[in-house]
Write a structure and sequence with these properties.
This protein has 245 residues and is mostly beta strands. It has three helices and 15 strands. It is 9% helix and 49% strand. A seven-stranded mixed barrel has the order 1-3-4-5-10-11-14. Strands 7-8-9-13 form a four-stranded antiparallel sheet.
């Protein structure tokens, strides 16, 4: 069963929408939340970043399977931006999963069999029109609304000077990492996409219960981006042995 959790096959889907809010947190407060094999992906050696990704998927299924086998799920993920030096000496930028939520028990059940992403099931209400998108949950205590204006401004207090600088921390990054402390192995999952062009959006309101529970001090909303209508797939997981340096 443990081997099943290591993402044993590739998975494909279609992102109808992916809304990502990234929060800057003083790096000292994030260090204890990541395993020793990873390092924080920081900005100005001061800020680490936590991303809240809200994704509406369509036809999620094993890669190569016919579409009728797929399912539509809403996924909410809470991730830290990190780096990992692999055994070939390449530094990979990616994400470390803190928690994942979904709107359907089926996704939570199978997600926890085939991944380490810590899925729970929650209520999720998604509303969208040409002017705005809102995502909320009573159980998970989050309430987010963004404007799709063409002249979006960076959130007040963002550490970034402009959207070009903010784009580097917009996600999703190519890799996701999981660490098994008992075997000293790092599981690397690579995501593949085309034509990934995040659009800046302006945040009207944001309240994220998971982040509130963490009690971060000095946390700042850093950016918010939206992508829509993008095919996406995750490769089969790859394990690497990690030796403490």
């Amino acid at each position: 069963m443990l081997s099943l959790k290591n993402h044993p096959f590739a998975v494909e889907t279609f992102f109808e929408s992916s809304l990502v809010l990234t929060y800057a947190v003083p790096k000292e407060q994030l260090q204890s939340l990541i395993p020793p094999c990873l390092e924080l992906d920081t900005f100005k050696d001061k800020w680490g970043f936590v991303a809240v990704a809200l994704v509406q998927t369509k036809d999620l299924r094993p890669k190569g399977a016919p579409k009728f086998m797929g399912n539509d799920f809403f996924l909410a993920g809470f991730r830290i931006f990190v780096k990992f030096n692999n055994d070939r000496g390449k530094r990979l930028r990616g994400l470390y999963i803190l928690k994942s939520e979904t709107n359907k028990r089926k996704m939570s059940f199978f997600g926890n069999i085939f991944t380490h992403y810590k899925y729970t099931t929650t209520d999720i209400i998604l509303k969208s029109n040409k002017e705005s998108i809102s995502v909320s949950s009573v159980k998970s205590a989050f309430d987010i609304e963004v404007s799709l204006t063409e002249n979006a401004t960076l959130p007040y207090g963002s550490p970034f000077n402009d959207w070009k600088e903010a784009r580097r921390y917009a996600g999703p990054l190519p890799y996701t990492f999981t660490y098994n402390a008992f075997t000293s192995e790092v599981l690397i999952i690579e995501g593949v996409r085309e034509s990934w062009i995040p659009k800046p959006v302006e945040v009207i309101k944001e309240n994220v219960g998971f982040l509130n529970q963490k009690g971060f001090e000095g946390i700042q909303l850093a950016n918010a981006f939206l992508i829509q209508n993008i095919p996406y797939y995750w490769k089969k997981g790859v394990l690497e042995k990690w030796t403490r340096h």
